[in-house]
């Protein structure tokens, strides 16, 4: 009984230590950066050990942020879309070396062939936004095929596989390929095969006119360092690459499911976390859907993705060893330094608690 009491007291002390560090980091984010609202969560060995929030989900209405606040997650959508595509590769409904034209006939044949592998690794040569006006588009596209029309006529920037070029439009093509290979609408596939099996009940597309409970209001930092309401942008041109809303806890659920084989096999996971090597033999820091990093401060490998668009900044980072995952989201664009400070504070707190 004494041993159990000691273990119980120790676990309470550890949880308190992490909670204090997390709350202090979030307060500092609000005080030291132009952050309106921020939520964070951390897990160890696929178990949530702490989540918290500070500031406002809606400053004007006085609605406080919480760990269940729903935010835009911007480009963190990409690893989710990559997982969906790799599920279809596993089931034989698609092939990484398959030309995208086979699955998306509305995308014309280019000078060189573009494959799913090129698109997932950002080595396709398909362009990214040509100007900020495209990134902040207010036009609504009824389908992914309609969205492809925005860039289908653009030339490839280089021979696919020869260079790295980040491309959200490339992921619009991946989403259209998911619809073709599965026979399902993109959101339906994501809901049934990715979000529901993972328990991500707060995750969905941000569709114009759809009311989503607990959604944060978005803000942007102006040139004068003040924070104003973010102008409306429509995400339908980039649903598969940046059109999803979620919570920090749902992001960790996704990371846990990816780590433990719920969504794809261990072999597919390893393939997705393998750096893509371009044609001249140069190894990139890009896997399939994930950024691959060696954290210099911690000396640890991590796979990660960040997201930034009007009204949000989001980070999801996974350290396979020592099995720590962290998600942080702010409802203000351009606040990533604050997110990084929170991430390191949480990591250090968990390590200090020896969980």
Task: Please provide a written account of the structure.
Helix content is 37%, strand content 19%. The longest helix has 31 residues, at 2-32. A 7-stranded antiparallel beta sheet has the order 3-2-1-12-11-10-9, sandwiched between helices. It has a 3-stranded antiparallel beta sheet with strand order 4-8-5. A 3-stranded mixed beta sheet has the order 7-6-13, with no helix packed on it. The radius of gyration is 20 Å and the shape is globular. Residues 1-10 have low confidence and may be disordered. The chain has one domain (21-353): 3-Layer(aba) Sandwich (Beta-lactamase), CATH 3.40.710.10. It contains 12 helices and 13 strands. The protein starts with a helix and ends with a helix.
Summarize the structure.
Helices cover 37% and strands 19% of the residues. By secondary structure, the chain is an alpha+beta fold. The N terminus is likely disordered.
* CATH class annotation: Alpha Beta
What is the share of helical residues? 25-40%
Strand order of the largest sheet: 3-2-1-12-11-10-9
Largest sheet: 7 strands, antiparallel
What do we call the CATH homologous superfamily? DD-peptidase/beta-lactamase superfamily
At CATH's second level, what is the architecture? 3-Layer(aba) Sandwich
Strand content: 15-25%
The count of β-strands is 13
What's the helix-strand series? Answer: HEEEEHHHHHHHEEEHEHHEEEEEH
Arithmetic mean pLDDT:
94
Shape: globular
- Give the oligomer, counting copies of the same chain as homo and different chains as hetero: single chain
How many distinct folded domains?
1
Q: Helical segment tally?
A: 12
Provide the structure class. alpha+beta
- What is the CATH topology assignment? Beta-lactamase
Unreliable stretches? 1-10
Radius of gyration: 20 Å
End-to-end separation in angstroms reads 22 Å
């Amino acid at each position: 009984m004494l041993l159990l009491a000691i273990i119980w007291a120790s676990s309470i002390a550890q949880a308190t230590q992490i909670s204090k560090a997390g709350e202090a980091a979030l307060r500092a984010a609000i005080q030291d950066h132009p952050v309106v609202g921020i939520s964070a969560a951390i897990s160890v060995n696929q178990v949530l050990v702490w989540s918290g929030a500070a500031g406002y989900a809606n400053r004007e209405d006085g609605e406080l942020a919480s760990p269940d606040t729903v935010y835009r997650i911007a480009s963190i959508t990409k690893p989710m879309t990559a997982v969906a595509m790799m599920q279809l590769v596993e089931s034989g409904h698609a092939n990484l070396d398959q030309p995208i034209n086979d699955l998306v006939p509305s995308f014309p044949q280019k000078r060189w062939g573009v494959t799913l592998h090129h698109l997932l690794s950002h080595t396709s040569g398909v362009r990214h936004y040509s100007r900020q006006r495209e990134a902040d588009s207010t036009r609504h596209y009824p389908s992914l095929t309609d969205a492809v029309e925005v860039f289908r006529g653009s030339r490839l920037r280089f021979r696919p596989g020869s260079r790295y070029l980040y491309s959200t439009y490339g992921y619009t093509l991946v989403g259209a390929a998911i619809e073709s290979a599965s026979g399902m609408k993109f959101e339906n596939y994501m809901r049934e095969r990715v979000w529901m099996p993972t328990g991500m009940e707060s995750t969905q597309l941000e569709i114009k006119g759809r009311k989503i409970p607990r959604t944060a209001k978005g803000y942007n930092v102006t040139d004068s360092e003040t924070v104003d309401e973010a102008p409306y942008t429509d995400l339908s041109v980039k649903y598969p690459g940046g059109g999803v809303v979620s919570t920090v806890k749902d992001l960790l659920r996704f990371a846990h499911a990816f780590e433990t084989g719920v969504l794809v096999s261990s072999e597919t996971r390893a393939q997705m976390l393998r750096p893509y090597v371009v044609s001249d033999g140069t190894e990139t820091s890009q896997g399939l859907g994930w950024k691959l990093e060696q954290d210099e401060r911690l000396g640890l490998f991590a796979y990660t993705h960040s997201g930034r668009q009007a009204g949000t900044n989001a980070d999801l980072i996974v350290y396979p060893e020592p099995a720590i995952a962290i998600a942080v989201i702010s409802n203000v664009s351009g606040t990533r330094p604050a997110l990084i400070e929170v991430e390191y504070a949480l990591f250090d707190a968990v390590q200090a608690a020896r969980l």
